[in-house]
Design a protein that fits this description.
Elements lengths: L1 H22 L8 H7 L2 H11 L11 E5 L32 E5 L9 H7 L4 E6 L1 H15 L7 E6 L2 E6 L4 E7 L5 E4 L5 E4 L4 H4 L7 E4 L3 H4 L9 E4 L2 E3 L4 H19 L6 E5 L30 H12 L5 E3 L2 H5 L36 H12 L1
Parallel strand pairs: 3-6, 3-9, 8-10, 9-12, 12-13
Antiparallel strand pairs: 1-2, 4-5, 5-6, 7-8, 10-11
Helix pairs in contact: 5-11, 8-9
């Protein structure tokens, strides 16, 4: 009995020593992620967030542009920018268009953090699908992240209509896929362009296996007269010389929607459809020339018909597509387009307006698409 009593005492002593050592273990043995949960700053952050309206309940589309001297978020010398959007290099004399930050009423959009974004997208493929304005946004997103990656750990590769920026250490990619109409536009007899409203696989085969897909499709549907995007429209076995562009747009979107519903899994894939980027082409294309500040508001806000059609199609889908509305906020930024600075103007900077075209569709970078990507970051 005495031996049993001594054994029990030793057992109790062992347990007490073990508990003491557990509570005083060297914190370096913990994973850094676990230690972050114990950081006192977490409580401060939570308290701050509890006082702010949730970004999920905040309407990010309503707000105003504020001049912020801590912007832009990356250098205008980013090596991934195409020459047509490097407005400062092309001779634009002002730079405030790089420094306007979108401030929604009632909340703030978190400043883009490249390492945080790359960490959350680790081992994932992010693909932006659409036209040249979507490429505008792709260049912005690549420039937002590339500066934190060593030169020998990043590269760009090409595959058909896809160009992909690879962040090798994160095993992730940011890709752009050229598909301005989403459905297929192909060459027919006599090099005539045939828009097939029921066919999409030639484009969609590049979307398979992608984790995050961001789409836009608008501008190519509105081209008309000599700038029309197609010569004939095909629906089923029927071929038409012309079709109302709005009706064609809805039919093309329905084909896209069916493909998404049949081929993607909401548990594995995230799909976002971005609304149309506004153009400022009125007054013979010079509406954006020499503009230096955003508009404060619209006297009569215009809702594009395409936007209503897009929302109608999205409501009918089984797959939960997230809608990103950038149209109204961007429409205030008539100062953000390249205008005549879409090309290098030469040493003396003399510009003959009658000899220059004015690009009031695309955007200077750094600039407006950076805000689209800050909102995209929130949505992801």
């Amino acid at each position: 009995m005495a031996q049993l009593h001594i054994y029990k005492q030793l057992l109790i002593l062992f347990i007490l020593v073990a508990l003491f050592c557990f509570n005083h273990v060297d914190s370096s043995s913990y994973n850094q992620e676990e230690l972050n949960w114990l950081d006192d700053k977490d409580d401060e952050i939570n308290m701050f967030h509890n006082k702010q309206p949730s970004l999920q309940t905040c309407d990010l589309t309503k707000g105003k542009w504020i001049l912020d001297q801590t912007y832009p978020l990356y250098s205008a010398n980013c090596p991934y920018l195409s020459s047509a959007v490097t407005c400062r290099k092309n001779g634009r004399p002002d730079s405030d268009y790089e420094k306007w930050r979108w401030k929604p009423y009632g909340c703030s959009i978190p400043r883009f953090n490249a390492l945080d974004f790359l960490g959350r997208m680790r081992k994932r493929r992010v693909m932006l699908v659409g036209d040249s304005i979507m490429r505008n946004q792709w260049e912005s997103l690549v420039c937002l992240v590339q500066s934190v990656i060593p030169n020998n750990r990043k590269t760009v590769i090409y595959n058909g209509p896809v160009m992909a920026f690879l962040a090798l250490d994160f095993e992730m990619s940011i890709e752009f896929c050229w598909a301005p109409l989403l459905v297929e536009l192909r060459k027919g007899p006599g090099s005539k362009r045939i828009l097939d409203l029921n066919s999409i696989e030639e484009n969609a085969k590049y979307w398979r296996g992608v984790d995050v897909l961001v789409f836009d499709s608008a501008h190519w549907w509105t081209h008309s007269d000599k700038w029309s995007s197609w010569d004939f429209v095909m629906e089923g076995q029927n071929v038409y010389r012309s079709m109302n562009p709005t009706a064609a747009y809805e039919k093309g979107l329905m084909t896209w929607a069916k493909w998404i519903d049949l081929n993607l899994d909401p548990r594995k894939n995230r799909v976002i459809f971005r609304s149309a980027s506004p153009r400022h082409n009125r007054d013979n294309g010079w509406k954006c020339y020499n503009q230096r500040e955003p508009l404060e508001k619209f006297s009569r806000p215009h809702v594009p018909e395409q936007l209503l059609i897009l929302q109608k199609v999205l409501r009918k889908m089984a797959f939960p597509v997230h809608f990103q509305d950038i149209t109204a906020m961007s429409a205030l930024r008539r100062d953000g387009h390249p205008s005549i600075y879409a090309r290098f103007s030469g040493e003396n900077g003399n510009l003959q307006l009658k000899d220059q075209s004015s690009d009031c569709s695309h955007w200077c970078l750094p600039g407006v698409p950076d805000t689209w990507n800050e909102i995209l970051n929130v949505m992801l």
